[in-house]
Amino acid sequence: KAGVTQTPRYLIKTRGQQVTLSCSPISGHRSVSWYQQTPGQGLQFLFEYFSETQRNKGNFPGRFSGRQFSNSRSEMNVSTLELGDSALYLCASSWEGGAYTEAFFGQGTRLTVV
Amino acid sequence: GENVEQHPSTLSVQEGDSAVIKCTYSDSASNYFPWYKQELGKRPQLIIDIRSNVGEKKDQRIAVTLNKTAKHFSLHITETQPEDSAVYFCAASWNYGQNFVFGPGTRLSVLP
Fold first, then answer.
1. d(CA A33, CA A37)
2. Number of C-alpha atoms within 13 angstroms, CB side, residue A66?
3. Could you tell me how many helices (H) and strands (E) chain B has, helices first?
4. Distance between A16 CA and the closest CA of chain B, angstroms
5. Angle subtended at Cα B38 by Cα A59 and Cα A46, rounded to the nearest 5 degrees
6. Of B49, B39, B17, nearest in space to A98 by CA
7. Which residue of A has its CA nearest to B41?
């Protein structure tokens, strides 16, 4: 069974640009969550999608957005990039999301903003 | 909102000794508490979890205890091995795992 796949693995962008990251969940999983990991702030929740609907949202500015497609694949977009957006972005998928189902993480996309 | 504190931030133990990591949470509505292990350059992986209606859970050398009254939970690793060296994150969820608030992490080093 394939794991959670994130693409690309690495990205370098310039301040002011926008970026789109992709996450393919484990087959059959309908919930996809996104987290930002930085040395200073740790793992912070961005948002969670379930059946194409954003079900939960963290405390990030509106520059961070996401969506989920009918096949459960998810994308997150960051517009008007800032230096502080440099981080490892992790997505996690689970069968139902909640109900104590295990969340499986992808390898992450490392975004560097210069 | 929920806030999770984790201590210690770094922990060094001799191989074969036990390691204990403690977390406290602020939201009494939190009902699910997983622990994740993240090795250098790798993804976080679930190692054990506990629900709010359970006080203790064990899986071989790993155990987790939960004290709902005090709002804290702990990870216990016995007979530590070098491959246990990693960063460990505790987390709390108020919606059964739809999303988590993570602790800042504990870097565990098991010395041979």
1. 13
2. 31
3. 0, 11
4. 28
5. 15
6. B49
7. A107
Is A42 in Cβ contact with B104 (below 8 Å)? Answer: yes
Residue entry with tokens 């309908």: A30
Burial class, B111, CB count within 10 angstroms (exposed 0-12 / middle 13-18 / buried 19+): exposed
CA distances (Å), origin A13, targets A48, A83, A85, B47, B81 = 25, 10, 10, 34, 40
Order the strands of the B19-25 sheet from edge to edge: B4-7, B19-25, B72-77, B62-67, B56-59
SS3 state of residue A101? coil
Best to test chain A binding among B23, B51, B99, B107 (most A CBs inside 10 Å): B99
> What pLDDT digit, counting tens, does each position of A20-37 carry?
999 999 999 999 999 999
DSSP letter at B31 equals -
Fill in the DSSP letter of residue A96. Answer: S
Residue pair B57/B64 in contact by the 8 Å Cβ criterion: yes
CA distance B72 to A42: 19
Q: Tokens 């070098």 correspond to what residue?
A: B82
Query: Could you report the per-residue pLDDT of A42-52, keeping only the tens digit for each?
Result: 899 999 999 99
> Looking at the predicted structure, is the pLDDT value of residue A104 above 90?
yes
Find out whether A22 and A77 touch, Cβ atoms under 8 Å: no
